[in-house]
Q: What sequence folds into this?
């Protein structure tokens, strides 16, 4: 029997996408990932590893391994979006309840707000550096820096206001351009330092395997955490897929290959900066400003702007806009959710997270992965292990159905989440258990997913026993 959508749980942005509107093919998803991966935070991932002491191949392999790992939950969570046409905040109702879903949706949204602020600050820095090249008095002016930040913030909001199709168009047009500019940067900066030979021959600073692993383990968690955000809300994009094959091939081709290639660019250019300046300059915008090549720097900074814009609106606005809309569908639309994201992004004070490589990788990336790993584990356990990929879509938009649980909240999911996240964060306060925090995403995903399956399995057995007891002899 078809259930009517409860207006408190649905609006036009949260409703299932009709089959005729599912038009995204392999190139759409490959270009989406190229556009999202070719960005300054990706560059900073690898350059931060070089600044921390890795050599070039250790840094590149760490990035590659992290992205191959996160691709697995990415494809698993993407399945329901492509099959049913539903976004992340609706899918997560199946496990957390129609009201309990607000918790994971809000947590994912807040992380995205932080990322929106980081990307917008980077874009503002790029505009300010370009302005300083053409008009030197602005180079050291805080007023012009903040004005450039505000201008780039406004540009992001404008694209969001145009809607999701504008985002897809922007990704498709910019992806080939961004790859070409990245390759140009790879050729240009190392050539100033004598070519790739001297750049890639620089050794790492770790003398023993133990020293390397102490840095490698939390770094790998940070690499996974980088895209642990989209690993949750990937249904927001795959709900537009023509087929399961379209998004799977597009993501498999677009994500690990582009991330690794652009990470290599970050590694090579940062290694070249050591030879040029005697220290690793991990921020490419700062580096471009120090190279004293105005024309090339302007071209590269323009590419930075395009890359930052495409990544920001796709990775950091689509999800929180839907998530905030899920809180109050009748009052909060996709556009309104985008505005909320923009305001909260500034409140996160992104300039602090970008103050140094340790704050960026070990503070920001590893820290929030302790919250997102448990959610991913619960979603995967619920959809694949317990429900066998079978959802009652109409019930996801209605009260009183199978996803109502206890007044709309599945407390077993809440408990499993708290156990996984709490265990991971425990490593921050107990020095002997620091490894729990270093492996935060892995610990949260494994513990919360397993505990959720155990708790829900006992619930199902209890329901069957109750039915049997009430059945007539």
A:
């Amino acid at each position: 029997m078809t259930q009517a959508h409860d207006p408190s749980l649905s609006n036009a942005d949260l409703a299932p996408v009709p089959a005729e509107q599912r038009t995204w093919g392999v190139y759409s998803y490959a270009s989406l990932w190229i556009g999202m991966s070719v960005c300054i935070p990706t560059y900073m991932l690898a350059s931060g590893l070089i600044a921390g002491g890795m050599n070039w191949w250790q840094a590149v392999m760490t990035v590659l391994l992290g992205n191959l790992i996160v691709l697995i939950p990415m494809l698993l969570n993407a399945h329901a979006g492509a099959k049913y046409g539903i976004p992340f905040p609706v899918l997560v109702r199946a496990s957390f309840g129609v009201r309990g879903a607000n918790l994971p949706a809000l947590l994912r949204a807040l992380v995205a707000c932080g990322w929106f602020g980081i990307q917008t600050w980077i874009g503002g820095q790029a505009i300010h550096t370009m302005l300083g090249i053409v008009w030197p008095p602005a180079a050291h002016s805080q007023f012009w820096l903040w004005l450039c930040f505000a201008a780039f913030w406004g540009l992001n909001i404008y694209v969001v206001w145009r809607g999701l199709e504008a985002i897809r168009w922007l990704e498709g047009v910019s992806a080939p351009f961004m790859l070409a500019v990245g390759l140009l940067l790879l050729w240009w900066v190392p050539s100033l330092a004598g070519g790739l030979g001297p750049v890639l021959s620089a050794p790492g600073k770790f003398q023993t395997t133990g020293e390397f692993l102490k840095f490698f383990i939390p770094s790998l968690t940070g690499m996974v955490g980088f895209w642990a955000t989209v690993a949750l809300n990937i249904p927001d994009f795959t709900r537009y897929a023509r087929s399961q094959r379209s998004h799977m091939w597009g993501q498999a081709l677009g994500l690990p290959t582009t991330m690794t290639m652009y990470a290599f660019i970050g590694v090579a250019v940062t290694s070249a900066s050591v030879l040029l300046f005697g220290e690793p300059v991990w921020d490419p915008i700062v580096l471009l400003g120090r190279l004293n090549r105005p024309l090339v720097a302007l071209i590269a900074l323009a590419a930075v702007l395009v890359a930052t814009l495409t990544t920001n609106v796709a990775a950091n606005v689509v999800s929180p806009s839907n998530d905030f809309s899920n809180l109050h569908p009748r009052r909060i639309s996709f556009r309104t959710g985008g505005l909320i994201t923009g305001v909260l992004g500034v409140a996160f004070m992104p300039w602090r997270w970008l103050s140094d490589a340790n704050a960026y990788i070990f503070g920001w990336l590893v820290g929030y992965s302790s919250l997102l790993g448990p959610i991913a584990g619960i979603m995967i356990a619920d959809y694949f292990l317990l429900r066998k990929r079978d959802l009652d879509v109409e019930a996801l938009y209605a009260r009183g159905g199978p996803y109502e649980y206890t007044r709309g909240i599945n407390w077993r999911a809440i408990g499993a989440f708290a156990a996984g996240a709490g265990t991971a964060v425990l490593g921050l306060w107990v020095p002997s258990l620091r490894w729990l925090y270093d492996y935060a995403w892995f610990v949260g995903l494994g513990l919360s997913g397993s505990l959720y399956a155990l708790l829900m399995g006992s619930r199902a057995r209890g329901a069957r026993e109750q039915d049997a007891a009430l059945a007539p002899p």
Notes: Residues 462-472 have pLDDT under 50 and may be disordered. Residues 24-356 form a domain with the Hydantoin permease fold (CATH 1.10.4160.10). The chain is about 75% helix and 0% strand.
